[in-house]
Amino acid sequence: VQLQASGGGLVQSGGSLRLTCVASGGALSSYTMGWFRQTPGKEREFVAAVRWSGGSTAYKDSEKGRFTVSRDKSKNTVYLQMNSLQPEDTAVYYCAASQGMILSNMRNINAYAYWGQGTQVTVSS
Length: 125
Known about the structure:
globular, 7-stranded mixed beta sheet, 4-stranded antiparallel beta sheet
């Protein structure tokens, strides 16, 4: 599976962005798709995830309510809608995927086998 993330950019505090991740190269019915982010000097952290089949979601506790993850099966695309963005949301955002993941592993970075390139999100104060 190949993943292509896009949609990052510069936004003012309080603004919104929608990130897009297009998947190709395989059937996604048994996949879980995740979003992670990383800032310089810090470990990559989980943001949100969605199961392709059934649509179950998981969120980083602090982002629940501001971020929404969704998928469009017809476009093989996963979205991360980010609202009320704050400067601390500034990071490189990555999409990731893995097959056959159990629900309890959705937040586990080590459970994801495929990664896209990152897209930079910068929130100015």
